[in-house]
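Lecture 7 notes: from sequence to structure.
We start with the chain below.
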Amino acid sequence: MILVSFGTRPEYIKLKPLMAEMKEEIPFKVLFTGQHTDLLSHIDGPITRLEIEDGSNRLDSIVSSMMNRDDIFEGIKAVIVQGDTTSAFAVALAAFHRKIKVIHLEAGLRTFNKYHPYPEEFNRRAISSLADIHLAPTEISAGNLKKENVDGKIFTVGNTVLDNLTHYFPVYTYRIVITMHRRENHHLIPEWFEKFDKLAKDNPKFEFVLPIHPNPNVYRHKGLLKHVKVVPAMPYAEFLPLMASAFMVITDSGGIQEESSFFRKKSLVCRQKTERVEGMGEFAFMTDLDNIEENFYNVMRDHIPKADCPYGDGTASQQIVEILLEELHGE
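Predicted structure tokens for the same chain:
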């Protein structure tokens, strides 16, 4: 029996196609770590829920709540964790303490700066140090793991998030899609929103759309957006067609860099560092408050990428199930 762990919406989005592919081939159960409780309505089958005891430090609480939980791992031969959340690290560490195999989905992403993003960069490095099977999305990610001389086997499979997108047919409209939510940008939200609003005011033929993140550090500044269409946060199934119809994307999200590339949309990445380096210069452009206008107009003049998506072709889940059947045979 495999334990599949997730608790956040991005984790679920990337694990959903894999679980669908596993359903007919590999028995598994779900550990729900509880960050986004609305996900429970989407989950079929046996679920174990982790109750996180709140303390003065949320990250500490996540890790400590996962420790000494033998009941969670009873009968489990391997665990799958996705990405770089603190709960993914905690589950991987607890499995390692019990000598249970750790399978890391989306392995090998790096910025090489432990504070950008924080705490995600540490979490994914720590998971890599104890994982037995590394499912890297790209050759660059796999190369990072090889340079670090990690234990375990490394497979390059593409990113499972793209498996959700294969039935969409992208078009280009005069719509600019914006998202912003990352912790590292919270103190800069007023400045970013003022820049977005100026671009919208100066380019009235474009519709600028921003699904507002519910985090209070973002939401309370929505009044600064006078010329941007602010809409409530969208379910994933509603957001995908919005992005598929965009002219370009402005974001601080890692996952959206991958999804927009699959849809052949260029993106302005509002971050100091990114772990998605494969698309830089063709699909994505690092952007700060000083150069966002310059980058925006450069992309406007040449907005269709000429290369293929560097993050996969939408078949990652099929490849992973084949790998797991081979690697876990008899366990």
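Points to note: Residues 175-301 form a domain with the Rossmann fold fold (CATH 3.40.50.2000). The longest helix spans residues 9-22.
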